[in-house]
Amino acid sequence: MTAAPRALSLPVFDALAAGGASLAAFAAFSLVGAEEAGPLMLTWFVPLSLALNWPHFMASYHVLYTTPGAVRRYPAAAVVVPILLAAYALAAAAFETRWPWMLRAFHAAAGVYLAWHYAGQTWGTMAAFAHVEGIRVEKAARGLIRANLSVLLAWHALWAARAASPLVAGFDAAYQALSAAALLSAALGAAGLFLLARAAGRLPARVVLPWLALHVGYAFLYRFPGQGYWMQIVQLSHALQYLSFPLRVQTNRDAQAGLRPAPWRPAAYYLALAAGGLGAFYALPRAADGLFGTGTGQAGMAVLDALVIHHYFVDGVIWRLGDPDVRRDLFAHLGPH
């Protein structure tokens, strides 16, 4: 009897989620051209967000609040931070006309924090798929790859700050210097991947694709700063990459609970995430705009910023692969190796 392939879902789906679909999307939109790509993404961004982006946010909340003992273990993520964020969002919306800087600062913080989030998820995805492949990432390779990702984190943070603030937008020399450093840092990551491949005797696509997809995505953000749909592709690709993990955790938890495998279970879980995302990221911001009645959409934006910042914070505590509980939930289906 042939053993099942080691994967979070199936190897081909793992590769697509890890970065293959992202690279395909960048290639396809490059061929379409800016005149058609912008309106096309504008038309499809909300449906794609409902399918990918919003469920991935809700998945982090589900993992946090349904994991036994997680609320007591992570009180800051589960209780303190959401209360503080909600209070700030409420104040920023209430005093929008008097203190508009509160909303601008909140949105800028969300954009800069996103840089840390993307770098962390890229490394986590690479490490997770290395484990799935049975590959140990040695210290030297890990250090080189993470150094590369740290430079990309700094670049993305400055890119986001420039987009959010006219004051930072004037630091063009610093931005160009950091852009050059980010490009050069790819050599560090490539060297780390070389060491990993030499030690393991192979370099699986699922390990390298997250790294490659992040570099390609950032290259497009740099090359086409005025074309916002490239960032939307990066966001949606990140969400697709993320969803493989909570879906696998939920499937493994169902198995540990003695439930028989059934295709409808992950489908029902995903649909529940999508429904929750529709409420949190579509209905709630519009309700906030209606409540404050400013007509600017800024109250809704404050709600969205609070939700995404909380998501970034939550992910920093619930997906630590060094945690035995996380490894059990994520890799239980693989068995010992």
Question: TL;DR?
Answer:
Helix content is 82%, strand content 0%. It is built from 13 helices and no strands. It has helices at 11-32, 34-66, 70-73, 75-94, 101-132, 139-164, 166-169, 172-200, 205-223, 229-256, 264-292, 298-318, 324-331.
Task: Give a verbal description of the structure.
- By secondary structure, the chain is an all-alpha fold.
- It has one domain (11-29, 48-334).
- 82% of the residues lie in helices and 0% in strands.
- The protein is built from 13 helices and no strands.
- It has helices at residues 11-32, 34-66, 70-73, 75-94, 101-132, 139-164, 166-169, 172-200, 205-223, 229-256, 264-292, 298-318, 324-331.
- α4 runs antiparallel to α12 (298-318).
- The chain is globular and about 60 Å long.
- It starts with 10 loop residues before the first helix and ends in a 6-residue tail after the last helix.
- 39% of the residues are buried.
Supply database-style keywords.
single chain, 337 residues, mainly alpha, 0% strand, globular
